[in-house]
Amino acid sequence: MAVTVFAAIDIGSYNVSIEVFELTKKSGLRSLTRVRKALELGKDTFSLKKISMERLEELTDILNDYKRIMKEFGVTAYRACAKSAFREAKNRYLAVDHIRRATGITIDVLSNSEQRFLGYKSIASRGEEFQKFIEKGTAIVDVGGGSIQISLFDNDSLVTTQNLVLGSLRVRQRLSSFERETTHYDVLVEQLFRKEISSFKRMYLKNRSIVNIILVGDYFTNLIFQNKSDLNKLETREEFMKWYDHFMKSSPADLAEELGISSDMVSVLIPMAVLYRKLIEELHVEMIWLPGIQLTDGVAYDYGEKNGIIRASHDFEKDIVMSAKNMASRYSSNKAHTEMLVMAAGKIFDVVKKSAELSPRDRLLLEVACYLHDCGKYISLVNVADCSYNIIMSTEIIGLSDRERRIIANVVKYNTAELTYYRDVAESDLLDTDDYMLVCQLVAIMRLANCLDQSYMQKMKSLSVVKKEKELILTVGSDDDYTLERGIFRENVDFFEEIFDLRPILKMKKKR
Question: pLDDT tens for residues 457-467?
Fold first, then answer.
């Protein structure tokens, strides 16, 4: 039986951890060891906006020690991930380069959506338990040192995910200068959260019923609930509130002794506890699940899935598509036209993908772009391209990297705007040549597909797409007047041929 020994390194706001896993097709994921060392990188970033050399040297020492651990366990692959403390540091690129030269370890600085997606995969690694839990209305609340992510599920589908820049360490830093002016620090924290939670509830919850909540995050999420040994803890609302009362009535010194931490860190835990209580009350939650997972679980699960060692029990790409569909609905996109565009673009893609060397992931990006292709009309009917671009670049879609989101935004933009040549696009939007070519290919497909329902009247009743030598033949079944669609189709033929070296030909077939 083939065995892979994989190490996941999590560089967080106040600790750095490594977990070594054994991965097999038969048994899946098994943790061999976990080591955690305290390091308050976030304290530098959230106050100084950079990582100091002192903290960087401490991190270097920790990672060199982790290299020794990886060698002892015979690790054959690893991934080191940094979160908001690195992501928001002005000197992050210098810090990553310093670590690479000093330790040989390459750090991936995760975008927020990538980080939360890996956290989401950590929960999904629990398989059927996760699937069963999200069948009813469920909120996943992921609290880190720098921010909070709230994701809503309904009927096994991801409805929305939103980030609030109010992590536990950031809140402590923000309130530190005046927390001594009150005897009720928890009230101060609650007032800070109140506006953000109210806005989230008003904009995204609406009439949706949330029955369950899954509490995840970093090491402290498990610590404050004493969930270190019970890695799959379920609590009722009443049990949680009983724990919360005990937590808040205890003095910082007593909590520090009870939890085995420094009294300084208790002020980090209070914002987490207050947030959890506030959300449980506001969402009227009945059941709380603490799966006891860390980001390292998600990193290992992701590696196993991508390398064919682990078979995912949850359809993560479906969540990405559902997020795009819900986003399109929020911006009042034409549903009937959009679904026809998705269908037509998919058929064209499937015919040209092999010769154009397009991947299944590229098809997903095209599908998301189709759903969002006219979201900018919600803001302006004149500047649709730029408004759509700005909406997409300002909205996180969990599971997509910043690079992928940039590609989608450009595809949507140039669906209607004139596509400029590489130098102009690259300089304005940080696209390399490969990404630029992918944008061109997806734009050409979307423009051609969009022609087929130019009137938004769904005249097309059937579509077949075949490649014949240097021609791409699209046969449309329709009994309606297709003059407008024919005319717009001809306007996009030359661009498609320039990109794919195939001449699109439109043929009509009566349906009666």
Answer: 999 999 999 99
